[in-house]
Amino acid sequence: MLELKHIKKYYHVGDTITKALDDVSVSFRQQEFVAILGPSGSGKTTLLNMIGGLDRYDSGDLIIEGKSTKTFKDADWDAYRNNSIGFIFQSYNIIGHLSILDNVEMGMTLSGVPKAEKQQRAEDALTRVGLAEHMHKRPNQLSGGQMQRVAIARAIANDPEILLADEPTGALDSVTSEEIMQLIKDLSKERLVIMVTHNPSLAKEYADRIINFADGKIQDDSAPYDEHEADDHFTLKRTKMSFWTALKLSFTNIKTKKGRTFLTMFASSIGIISVAIVLALSTGFQTQIDKTEGETLAQYPITIARQGQDTSQQPEQQKGFSKSDRVTAKTSASDKAQHLNKIDQNYLNYLNGLDKKLAKNISYTYATGLNLVRDINGQYKPVKFSNSNPENTGADPSAMMATLGVGGSVYPVDRYGKQSYLKTNYKVLSGSYPTAATDVVLIVNRDNTLNINSLKNLGFKVKENQKYNYKDLVGQTIKVVANNDYYQQVPTGNFIPKTDYNDMANAKDTKTLKIAGVLRVKSKKSDGMLASGIAYSDRLSSAVIDQNQNSAIVNAQKNSDTNVMTNETLTSSSKKTVLAYLGGDKIPAAIQIYPNNFDDKDKILTYLKKYNKDKSKADKIIYTDLAGTVSSLTGGLMSAITYVLVAFAGISLVTSMIMIAIITYTSVLERTKEIGVLKALGARKKDITRVFDAETVILGVGAGILGVLIAWLATFPINLILENITGLANVSHLNPIHGVILIIISTILTVLGGHIPARMAAKKDAAIALRTE
Ligand code: ADP
Ligand code: MG
């Protein structure tokens, strides 16, 4: 059955060598009760550990059922302990945080016996040792004798061929000792039992064979046996602990020290809490900044007008009095700064190449006039989109054209064809957002006032403070008349507007505009770009230009250096203005670009500057950055602050990781005995690592969840305080994705921190582990 051949085991401590086993050769029968007697320190425990595969011999050979163990790997020894060996110790070595049943099942758990069978066999074993009634107690509710019975049940549950008992009655009173001996005697009927004892009378009373041991050598043997060389018919079933078993083991262990575990989790969650709060605040601030920036930029877009201001020109220096007796002609600094932007199709194409993501909205302001008529009490009359006082504009029509332009505001239409600008910045009070190019909207101030002139110019008879229901405004229509229907040429060759407005309204080329809705700015802080009054899209202007650019009046004006309506002489510049007013110019007078935020604005400006590279001074196109003058808290500063804070929070994260490592390490020290027991039952190194890894996983997940939960709860008081101080609501906002990521990070960090102590635990020598008290 079992044969030891010249087994030696020497311990080297410093210069002294302890010969724990000094050339031991002995054989055991398939079934017998062997008692090993000997003084303390004679090597009895070492011998048992050697036979049980808990310790390795230095030289010699251990032959199990004809198989040499010289070539055994760790896994073979683990399986051998699990399948063939049952250990009983003097100090019972019951795992305190597991139930009695779990303790007895542990060996079978390690070898993966199905649950039902495992439980049945454990119950049978407990019944066999006389504990049928105590099976559901906790280990600490048992007496010493009962504990040793549990240990015996655990040793025989897997039905091993060899039972090894190291002074099993050493800690028991004499009556209980007799009972335990009787039990072991019964068990020896079915297997080989090797028991170490220093009680010769017990040995004589119960054992079949007594071996006296001293100084690592067998002194005498009452029934020696010679093993006949048997064939190798030895097979092993490998052990393997599932991660779930490991988790369960750690979980029950953690449950026994709830308070400490909670404190550990809390302490390690502090890192997570700080990172989570920093993230929540910075996300919130970033959202606020983006919102404010977006609102600011909605009011102060980048503007490229025909008439640009070259801000790179130095302002005039203050000078002392001149001593000269003559005067010098000089261009003023402000005139020098004037720059005529030659906006052309080329430049428009360049703008189209601007990344759509940087600026969804670009609006083009055309100087084209709109020939508008509106039905006023059954009669069509000329009207206009303008906020200027109609009583003051009688004088000079061309001056009027130049100064007032067309009136009304132009709202940008998204470059994807959507109304994102209006939808982001304006709220519909009545009606709807515009959809067609012929939809116009009425913009009102925050207090729902509307410039009275805008209504007067549309032909409303209106008094100061008069109130309108939305339905009196929304749905109203206005007609845009084509030049050819609006103007007629008189015999002198001049063009004058016709007067039959009803005819105009019904002409084939006339378009019908509709007031789609009444809109109001959303922001509490900024007024938005659009003035109160009518706003229409640049798509309407371009449609009108397309219709009019080849009209009779435009063609006539193109070929004349005087104004075809007033006969006034025109300079090339004022001719341009008149032509543009009549719809003869497809190039916009001004372009507004609405960036999403300041970062995007900087990128857009870089793009605009790139156009001017290698261009002569006159050909450069100068933009006005209205928002540039508005002081801005940039996102850059915010992210810098965030980085610093996250770095600090990260330090606390690392601190908590180190703490987890320390805690796992103490847990390893505390559970040394348990590690030894698990190994005696056949657990592999991997399994031990798993048990501790599982523990850190539980701690890490727990700490992560706790940390995120606390951080989330903290956002409420933080928001309350911030709202009191800054007036900003809901600044702190923990992104759920950040929460999940933090839990994962916490788990990974704790597992990393705990893994090294876990590996140390796995490497612990089982024999030494079991010797520690
Ligand atoms: P017994 O069980 O008969 O009392 P042991 O087998 O425990 O004796 O010990 C035999 C000898 O080996 C003792 O002298 C003991 O000090 C020594 N010994 C046991 N384990 C170690 C170890 N890990 N390192 C050094 N010496 C050891
Ligand atoms: Mg001993």
From TrEMBL:
Membrane topology of the entry: Multi-pass membrane protein
An annotated GO cellular component: membrane protein complex
Cellular localisation: Cell inner membrane
Residues covered by region (Disordered): 306-334
Transmembrane segments: 262-281, 640-665, 694-716, 736-754
Superkingdom assignment: Bacteria
Biased composition (Polar residues): 306-321
Coiled coil ranges: none
Cross-referenced SMART domains: AAA (SM00382)
Chief site of localization: membrane
The entry's keywords: Amino-acid transport, ATP-binding, Cell membrane, Membrane, Nucleotide-binding, Transmembrane, Transmembrane helix, Transport
Any one biological process term the GO annotation gives: amino acid transport
Gene3D superfamilies cross-referenced by the UniProt entry: P-loop containing nucleotide triphosphate hydrolases
ABC transporter domain span: 2-240
Xref: PROSITE patterns: ABC_TRANSPORTER_1, ABC_TRANSPORTER_2
A molecular function GO annotation: ATP hydrolysis activity
Family designation: Belongs to the ABC transporter superfamily. Macrolide exporter (TC 3.A.1.122) family.
Protein name: Peptide ABC transporter ATPase
Organism: Agrilactobacillus composti DSM 18527 = JCM 14202
Lineage summary: Bacteria, Bacillati, Bacillota, Bacilli, Lactobacillales
